[in-house]
Automatic annotation (TrEMBL):
<feature type="transmembrane region" description="Helical">
    <location>
        <begin position="64"/>
        <end position="85"/>
    </location>
</feature>
<feature type="transmembrane region" description="Helical">
    <location>
        <begin position="27"/>
        <end position="44"/>
    </location>
</feature>
<dbReference type="Pfam" id="PF00083">
    <property type="entry name" value="Sugar_tr"/>
</dbReference>
<feature type="transmembrane region" description="Helical">
    <location>
        <begin position="200"/>
        <end position="217"/>
    </location>
</feature>
<comment type="similarity">
    <text>Belongs to the major facilitator superfamily. Sugar transporter (TC 2.A.1.1) family.</text>
</comment>
<feature type="transmembrane region" description="Helical">
    <location>
        <begin position="323"/>
        <end position="341"/>
    </location>
</feature>
<dbReference type="InterPro" id="IPR005828">
    <property type="entry name" value="MFS_sugar_transport-like"/>
</dbReference>
<dbReference type="GO" id="GO:0005351">
    <property type="term" value="F:carbohydrate:proton symporter activity"/>
</dbReference>
<dbReference type="InterPro" id="IPR050360">
    <property type="entry name" value="MFS_Sugar_Transporters"/>
</dbReference>
<dbReference type="InterPro" id="IPR005829">
    <property type="entry name" value="Sugar_transporter_CS"/>
</dbReference>
<dbReference type="GO" id="GO:0005886">
    <property type="term" value="C:plasma membrane"/>
</dbReference>
<keyword id="KW-1133">Transmembrane helix</keyword>
<feature type="transmembrane region" description="Helical">
    <location>
        <begin position="159"/>
        <end position="180"/>
    </location>
</feature>
<dbReference type="InterPro" id="IPR036259">
    <property type="entry name" value="MFS_trans_sf"/>
</dbReference>
<feature type="transmembrane region" description="Helical">
    <location>
        <begin position="281"/>
        <end position="303"/>
    </location>
</feature>
<feature type="domain" description="Major facilitator superfamily (MFS) profile">
    <location>
        <begin position="31"/>
        <end position="477"/>
    </location>
</feature>
<feature type="transmembrane region" description="Helical">
    <location>
        <begin position="455"/>
        <end position="474"/>
    </location>
</feature>
Length: 486
């Protein structure tokens, strides 16, 4: 074990790696990219619905509340998937769980597009819930899988691919939405084969779903799960491939993993976890998940169109706006990927969280001092306020996508000991989806009460998130997963 760890650390400092370790890193990186195809679908699916929601409302004659239910149905499915996926992956394996996600994604892609003829609005909700179960399971299990196959000194950046995958999914789906909508003359217009543009948007979900199904079948099982299943020799083989360890070094790692599982060599369920010595650690993970949503990542974008219009972006410039937002997101997440293993998870969360709550405070201040119009604060009446708000939005994007966006996944995947990882991941990811659902559900009511007050509230949560992280989160950068129990 010590020989392997020292060799990896030397590579991190800049010395050339041994060829076998360099090849192992490339292999581990390719596995991490494949594992993030589920989160890619998550981003893709969310943007598809965002582009289709008005046409869906017209198709099924939905009111505002029913449209909101259609929008949140995927989150409800994601919550269900997240709650059960971690423990299911303990029983049948991380890889097998990820494989079973594919039918759920394909179900929504194909049948969601045909919902007008298969049961209408209720069937569309079912499709969204089923698809949500799939991507909820994938986004829960993927960080743990990557954590369990990645070398310790690059584990953070590999898990952070999840956030980049979500952003790229949003961008590609947004681009497809624009192309399809313009080709048809509107999302409610008929495009081809008797299908409307919004139905073709749903069918485009087949692209990431099929790619996910094909590529996930090519990955090996997690070595930590193989040890828990009593398949130590297979685990040693996988470890050699992803770390570059010799056969003896891999067997040493297997023995270290076996010791962390305890005498019975098993993982614990949710009830056992809540009665264990690690229940405080799990609550910290759940709180970090909640704060990720309470910092306002969904709420900030509610007024994004209004803010961009205030500085000259018209509605028909949606692609330019999407490109600008995506640019800042990509810059942020790439910065996080490059820095997280050098600076550490805790400091990145504190620094990024500080930028987040300052940015939210600026947006709140703009809404506080902007003159009131018929539909709320009239930011467009003052160009300076418009530019200030857009600048704050871009700073928020940089802060969130470089820290709380990707690093939540990192700490969720690696902060829990081997014995409780599956159950603990389900609880943390479930908290993430549950609070996300509440934010999406309550945000329109909060904004109707007071836009300024809403963003001041988010700013306050941002401050609490930084204080909580500084007080309770322990640094995990550079540590082996077998050290987490300490």
């Amino acid at each position: 074990m010590s020989t392997s760890t020292n060799s990896v650390a030397t590579g991190k400092r800049g010395a050339p790696l041994e060829p076998r370790r360099a090849a192992a890193r490339r292999y581990a990186t390719s596995l991490a990219v494949i594992a993030t195809l589920g989160p890619f679908f998550y981003g893709f699916e969310g943007m598809v619905l965002n582009g289709a929601i008005k046409a869906v409302g017209s198709e099924f004659h939905l009111g505002a509340f029913a449209q909101g239910v259609a929008g949140s149905a995927g989150i409800i499915g994601g919550l269900i998937g997240a709650i059960f996926a971690g423990r299911v992956s303990d029983r049948i394996g991380r890889r097998t769980t990820l494989l079973w996600v594919a039918p759920f994604l394909l179900f929504e892609a194909v049948l969601g597009a045909l919902s007008p003829w298969l049961g209408g609005y209720a069937f569309l909700l079912l499709c969204r819930i089923v698809g949500g179960i799939g991507f909820g399971a994938a986004t829960t299990v993927a960080p743990g899988y990557v954590a369990e196959i990645a070398p310790a000194d690059i584990r953070g950046r590999l898990i952070a691919f999840r956030q980049l995958a979500i952003i790229l999914g949003l961008f590609f789906a947004g681009t497809i939405n624009i192309i399809v909508s313009r080709s048809a003359g509107g999302t409610a217009a008929t495009l081809a084969l008797g299908l409307k543009a919004w139905q073709w948007m749903f069918l485009c979900l087949l692209i990431p779903a099929i790619f996910y199904a094909i590529m996930t079948a090519r990955i090996p099982e997690s070595p930590r799960w193989l040890v828990a299943a009593g398949r130590g020799d297979e685990a040693a083989t996988v470890l050699s491939k992803v770390t570059g360890d010799t056969a003896d070094e891999a067997q040493d790692r297997v023995e270290a993993i076996r010791q962390t599982l305890g005498a019975e060599e098993r993982t614990l369920g949710v009830r056992a976890v809540m009665n264990s010595q690690w229940k405080g650690l799990v609550f910290v993970g759940m709180a970090i998940a909640a704060f990720q949503q309470l910092t306002g990542t969904n709420g900030v974008f509610f007024y994004s169109n209004t803010l961009f219009e205030a500085v000259g972006f018209s509605e028909d410039m949606a692609l330019q706006q999407t490109l600008l937002i995506t640019c800042f997101k990509v810059v942020g997440v790439v910065s996080g990927i490059l820095l997280v293993d050098r600076i550490g998870r805790k400091r990145m969360l504190i620094w990024g969280g500080t930028l987040i709550f300052i940015s939210l405070g600026v947006v709140a201040l703009v809404f506080t001092i902007a003159p009131m119009g018929e539909n709320g604060p009239d930011v467009a009446s003052n160009p300076f306020l418009g530019f200030l708000a857009v600048a704050a939005l871009c700073c928020f994007l940089l802060g969130f996508t470089s820290s709380w966006g990707p690093i939540f996944s990192i700490v969720m995947g690696e902060m829990f000991p081997n014995q409780i990882r599956g159950a603990a991941m389900s609880m943390a990811s479930g908290a993430d989806f549950f609070v996300n659902f509440l934010v999406v559900l309550l945000f329109p009511f909060l904004v109707s009460w007071s836009p300024a007050g809403t963003y001041w509230l988010y700013c306050g949560f941002g401050i609490l998130a930084v204080i909580f992280t500084a007080r309770y989160l322990h640094e995990t950068a550079g540590k082996e997963l077998e050290e987490m129990g300490a």
